[in-house]
Design brief:
Low-confidence stretches: none
Structural class: alpha/beta
Bound molecules: nickel (II) ion
Order of helices and strands: HHEEEHEHHEEEEHEEEHEHEHEH
Shape: elongated
Strand order of the largest sheet: 1-2-4-3-5-14-6-13
Radius of gyration: 24 Å
Distance between the termini: 28 Å
Largest sheet: 8 strands, mixed
Helix content: 25-40%
Length: 380
């Protein structure tokens, strides 16, 4: 297949996907579309992912060998598109503003390329179209289906569009680049009373305000300066009126970390803050809602990606760690994996209503990923 033919093939799918964005766990049309394309792709066999949305397929080589998976996320965001593209969203209030349409199309391209080369493949390629990356814990849901054990997946690869990188560039680095994403909630209960007589109740507002202050000291005073962590209180809710001291206050926010030990240390310290306030007579409930862990790129596989990219004439830059999340990390907990950014140009950041990717990057991304998979199948 020439690069031109591949690009035409990919554009058709990319345009359809961009027109039909769907939110996490609601990717029904997308799933049907992907399955239909896979069914018509030579050398590809559709498998059962075991989830309502998302899809799974395999390309089984002529001879046995390692099992390598490639993952693309397929969901979109609740954003009203303002890109002005001729193929803009037809689903009002929903938009592919993170490039997951690009990821899906690129993986359909990998299916096409590797399906055609099935006879030369030693081993098995698993194609995973994951639902719900943006919300609803799609990565965890896929892990819970047990497909990694069932198909004996040994390595996993994935990519993400990158708006501030030019087409023809990729960014990769070993180790972490996306953080563990956790959520917390404190409920501080005191006793409500008249605003003129605080001594008759137990005011939760100053206690919760002190809690906000002491949370700032966890990262600055208790965590090693050589580690990275963020604790952000993003919601502080309390009270109903100017002359009533309320009975309770709520704090909510997020914690981002790279190192699992630091993550565990922060949970303990946050719990201790709650216990401190309880000694003053407040009833404090602390809820820790864990999200995906930090990504962790395998050193050898990152090097494999870098080498292949150079061979495919990509400009390769270093991927810097960021405190955002990426649930590809769920798979890296199970098997070694590498995740990289593909330059897709554009003037607006991800999750912006004017976000665009340059589809010119599609054929290169599909070809690069296919070459990476072939290399991973031979290197063991
Ligand atoms: Ni994304």
């Amino acid at each position: 297949m020439t690069t031109e033919e591949l690009q035409t093939y990919l554009l058709e799918h990319f345009h359809w996907l961009h027109r039909h964005p769907e939110l996490a766990l609601k990717e029904y049309e997308t799933t049907d579309y992907v399955k239909n394309v896979l069914k018509q792709t030579e050398g590809v066999e559709l498998l059962d992912l075991g989830l309502e949305t998302g899809a799974l397929a395999k390309i089984e080589g002529k001879e046995p060998g390692p099992v390598v998976a490639v993952r693309a996320d397929i969901d979109a965001l609740p954003i009203m598109e303002e890109s002005g593209l001729p193929y803009c969203s037809e689903n009002e209030g929903c938009m592919h503003a993170c490039g997951h349409d690009f990821h899906t199309a690129a993986l359909l391209g990998v299916a096409k390329l590797l399906g055609e080369q099935k006879e030369q493949i030693k081993g098995t390629v698993i194609l995973l179209f994951q639902p719900a990356e943006e919300a609803e814990h799609g990565g965890e849901k896929v892990v819970d289906t047990g497909i990694f054990e069932k198909y004996k997946i040994e390595k996993v690869f994935g990519l993400h569009t990158r708006p501030n990188l030019p087409v023809g560039t990729i960014a990769i680095a070993p180790g972490p680049f996306a953080a563990a994403v956790d959520r917390f909630l404190y409920t501080v209960k005191g006793m409500g009373c008249h605003g003129s007589a605080p001594q008759t109740g137990l005011d939760p507002i100053p206690a919760a305000a002190r809690l906000v202050g002491s949370l700032q000291e966890i990262v600055s005073r208790r965590i090693s300066p050589l580690e990275t962590a963020v604790i952000s209180v993003t919601r502080f809710t309390s009270g109903t009126s100017w002359n009533i001291i309320p009975g309770e206050a709520e704090l909510e926010g997020t914690v981002r970390t790279f190192n699992p030990e630091v993550r565990a240390q922060i949970v303990k310290l946050m719990q201790a803050q709650a216990e401190g306030l309880e000694k003053e007579g407040y009833q404090v409930e602390f809820k820790w809602l864990p999200g995906c862990p930090a990504t962790n790129n395998d050193e050898q596989l990152s090097e494999l990606v870098r080498k292949e990219a150079v061979e495919e004439k990509f400009h390769v830059t270093l991927q810097h760690p960021e405190m955002g999340g990426e649930d590809f990390s769920c798979y890296q907990e199970l098997v070694p994996g590498a995740f990289f950014h593909v330059g897709t140009g554009g003037d607006y950041p991800a999750h912006n209503s004017k976000f665009t990717v340059d589809p010119a990057a599609l054929a290169g991304a599909s070809r690069l990923m296919s070459e990476i998979v072939k290399k991973a199948l031979t290197a063991s």
